[in-house]
TrEMBL record:
It is found in: Cell projection, Cilium. This is Cilia- and flagella-associated protein 263. Keywords: Cell projection, Cilium biogenesis/degradation, Coiled coil. Belongs to the CFAP263 family. Residues 126-299 form the CCDC113/CCDC96 coiled-coil domain. PANTHER family: COILED-COIL DOMAIN-CONTAINING PROTEIN 113 (PTHR15654:SF2), COILED-COIL DOMAIN-CONTAINING PROTEIN 113-RELATED (PTHR15654). It comes from Papio anubis (Olive baboon).
Amino acid sequence: MTDDEIESVLSDSHEGSEQELPVIQLCGLVEELSYVNSALRTETEMFEKYYAKLEPRDQRPSRLSEIKMSAADYAQAIIEEAEIRWNEVARAVHEFEKDILKAISKKKGSILATQKVMKYIEDTNRRRDNMKEKLRLKNVSLKVQRKKLLSQLRQKEEVGEALHDVDFQQLKIENAQFLETIEARNQELTQLKLSSGNTLQVLNAYKSKLHKAMEIYINLDKEILLRKELLDKIEKETLQVEEDRAKAEAVNKRLRKQLAEFRAPQVMTYVREKILNGDLEKSIKMWERKVEIAEMSLKGYRKAWNRMKITNEQLQADYLAGN
C-alpha cells in the first residue's frame, strides 16, 4: 500500500465519519495504521541491512531494538493505562447514576433524565471524535515526515552520494522517534477503542434500564388515572346512599311521631287508619330495608377502596424497589 493510497483511505474514512459508527471507524484506523507500521518496519529493516554493508562491523551502532522498553515494563504500562481507563469508566458510571437514575425516581424527572442521557451520549461521541481527528492529523503529519525523509534518501542515492555517519545517525534517531511515536499512537488508539466499547456497553445497559423505568412510569400513570375515576364514582354513590338514608330516617321519624301521637278514632276512622297504618308500616319496613341495603353497599365500597389503596401502595413499593 503506497502513501497516496493510505492518505486516500484515511480521507475516505474521515469523510464517512458521520455515517459509520465510532467503533467501526476506530477499527478501520487501527487496521490502516497497522499496515503503515508494517511497511515502515520493512523499509527500516532494509535500510539497516543496506547500512550494514556500507560500514565495518565494529563501527555498527546498536540496533533500534535495544532501546525499546522491556516486556515487563511494557506490560506494566498497559496495566497502569487499563487502571486509569477503568477509574474513568467507574467515575462516569457514578456520575451517570447520580445525575440520571435519581432523577428517574422523581415524579417529573423522566423527561429531564432522557435529555441528560442524550447529552451524555453526544458529549462522549464528541470527545471520541475529537480524539480520533487529533490522532489522524498526527498520523498524517508523521507520514509527511516519512515521505520527506524517503525523498531525501532517494535523492542522495540518485546523485550517488554516500551517506555519512552523522547523516545516518540523524536518520536513525528520527526513524526511531517516528517508530516510537507511531507505537504510542497505536496504543492510544487501542485504549480509545477499548474505552469506547466499555462506554457503549454501559450506556446501552442504562438505556435499557431507562426504557423499563419509563414503561413502569407510564403503566403507573394509567393505573392511577383508573383508580381516581373509580374513587370519584364511589364517592358519588356514597353521597347518594347517604342522601337516601337521610330521607329514609326523616320519613321513619315522621311516621313514628305520627304513630306515637295517634288517638283512637271512631270505628270507620279506626278501620281506615288501621289500613293506612298497615300501609305505612309496610312502607317503613321497605325504607328500612333500603337503608340496610344502602349501608351494605357503602361497606362494600369502603372495602373496595381500602383494597385499592393497599394495591396502590404495593405497586409504588415494587416500583421503588425495582429502581
